[in-house]
Design a protein that fits this description.
Order of helices and strands of chain B: HHHHHHHHH
Shape of chain B: elongated
Oligomer: heterodimer
Number of domains of chain A: 1
Shape of chain A: globular
Helix content of chain A: 25-40%
Number of strands of chain B: 0
Strand content of chain A: 15-25%
Strand order of the largest sheet of chain A: 6-7-8-3-9-10
Largest sheet of chain A: 6 strands, mixed
Radius of gyration of chain A: 18 Å
CATH architecture of chain A: 3-Layer(aba) Sandwich
Helix content of chain B: over 70%
Chain lengths: 252, 245
């Protein structure tokens, strides 16, 4: 869709340095290094279990590394106050909507809980963000009444309310039909174009990655095996990347 | 086990520190209060009436046989106020509300809703634990008072309706008035207040540490109820010793 990051960016840079993390003596991240530029759509690809989602959880501060550090705009997220200084949001694989709250309450929860706006204004902002993701008039529905694609769009609307400088997407198109997947891809792309938010997308959806990414990193078994523009990654001769990009079902 | 105890103490402490923020969470406190209090009333009523009745039925004939009919009301009143109402209500609430708290928070943990809260800089202790603990700390002592009153009524009705006891309701309440002091009721209410914190902290903690899928949620619910009941019984002994004169 595009090859260069939006100039109109409010986004932040993300730098991962020597990140290591083990669970039960099994090393999941083996010293990762990467830099995401402000306003960039950066896609992290790789087979299931390669450590992509764990990396994302470290960047948003849900996990603490065993070694290494993560810098947002050059400041370590371990430094007190840094996580509050930058507006960051995450769209979870499952959407992670609050099942006991309505769609409107889900989208407005950040503003409501932090008492950032009066209730009437929150209602207006919620309606506006839902309209942005094509879900106008769904405020009073419960998450259980929505399809998988709609839930993900509500999760994006909830992230937008934060007016983020960095959005992390965890498998945004998994479990979706091809049409819904395209709609989500367009949302990610449009948001980046319109507000210049830095977008870090974890996915093993090849169409999504090559369709929207400015740059792609491929992770395998906790290590980055390739990083570069979509064309550079496509040209990689690494056997794991060749297998990953050309895996197809061939009936005997 | 010691790690769990440490985590529960910390959770309790963090909730206490967050108490000044209670006003902000007042809507959630009222919702929880309604759920704990109002929705439990019928169950509390039935349970307390029959506990009071059984107590009168078990002790009444023996006391009357020995010419101690003046003590039936006192015994029922005293037992309900100081022991049975607080412990029965705490166990009932552990089963009914503690399990619901652990299941709700546990499923929020498993389905990443708590992670989502954290990414929005919303403290799960303020958002989920504080309203539940404040609501249960108000509701349980009130249910204890209600249970004491219904239990007394149950005892009086059974004592007057049973031929082996045959005490008028008036005589039952006069005997109770002589034996039971306001301080005894206050003791029971205080116990209820302490048990409320136990049920709330244990259940919320179990919810927050839930791991795995639906099986993990089930395990947390069981642990929340069982651990709450064990702690209630242990603390009942400790509190009785402390309050004993």
């Amino acid at each position: 869709m595009m090859s260069t990051p939006s100039n109109n960016h409010s986004g932040v840079s993300v730098e991962v340095r020597g990140l290591r993390r083990s669970f039960n003596n099994q090393e999941v991240l083996k010293g990762l290094d990467l830099v995401v530029r402000p306003g960039e759509i950066f896609v992290i690809m790789g087979p299931s279990g390669s450590g992509k989602s764990v990396l994302l959880r470290h960047i948003i501060g849900l996990e603490a590394p065993n070694a290494g550090e993560i810098l947002i705009n050059g400041e370590s997220i371990q430094t007190p106050g840094v996580m509050n200084k930058y507006r960051m949001a995450m769209v979870f694989q499952s959407g992670a909507l609050f099942n006991s709250l309505t769609v409107g309450e889900n989208v407005g929860i950040y503003l409501t809980e932090h008492h950032l706006r009066p209730p009437e204004e929150i209602t207006r902002i919620v309606a506006e963000k839902l309209e942005t993701v094509g879900l106008k008039g769904t405020e009073s529905k419960l998450p259980s009444e929505l399809s998988g694609g709609m839930k993900k769009r509500v999760a994006i609307a909830r992230a937008l309310v934060i007016e983020p400088q960095l959005i992390l997407y965890d498998e945004p198109t998994s479990e979706l039909d091809p049409i819904s997947a395209v709609v989500i891809a367009e949302e990610i792309f449009e948001l980046n174009r319109r507000i210049g938010v830095t977008s870090l997308v974890v996915s093993h959806d090849r169409d999504l990655a090559f369709g929207i990414a400015h740059r792609i990193a491929v992770i395998n078994e906790g290590e980055i095996i390739a990083i570069g523009s979509p064309d550079e990654v496509k040209r990689s001769s690494h056997p794991v990347i060749r297998n990953f990009l050309h895996a197809d079902f061939k009936p005997q | 086990m010691f790690q769990n105890i440490g985590e529960m103490v910390l959770l309790f402490w963090h909730t206490l520190l967050a108490l000044p923020l209670m006003w902000r969470q007042r809507d959630k406190v009222f919702d929880q209060f309604y759920e704990i209090g109002n929705a439990s009333l019928l169950m509390v009523c039935v349970l307390s009436f029959f506990i009071g009745g059984v107590l009168a039925l078990q002790t009444g004939p023996t006391l009357v046989e020995r010419g101690l009919h003046n003590y039936v009301g006192g015994l029922v009143g005293f037992s309900m106020a100081k022991e049975l109402a607080p412990i029965m209500m705490a166990i009932l609430i552990a089963g009914r509300i503690g399990s619901a708290m652990a299941a709700e928070i546990g499923s929020m943990r498993v389905y990443q809703e708590i992670d989502a809260l954290q990414t929005m800089n919303i403290n799960p202790v303020h958002y989920l634990v504080l309203p539940r603990l404040v609501a249960i700390a108000f509701a349980l002592p009130m249910l204890v008072v209600f249970s004491i009153l219904v239990g007394w009524l149950g005892g009086a009705v059974v004592a007057s309706a049973t031929s082996q006891i045959d005490i008028t309701m008036q005589a039952f309440f006069v005997s109770m008035r002589d034996a039971v002091k306001l301080e005894d009721v206050a003791n029971g209410v205080f116990k209820g207040f302490c048990f409320a914190w136990i049920v709330g902290v244990v259940s919320c903690h179990q919810g927050l540490v839930t791991r795995g899928g639906p099986r993990g949620i089930g395990r947390s619910v069981t642990k929340a109820v069982v651990n709450s009941i064990i702690l209630i019984v242990v603390f009942d002994y400790v509190l009785t010793r402390i309050l004993l004169k």
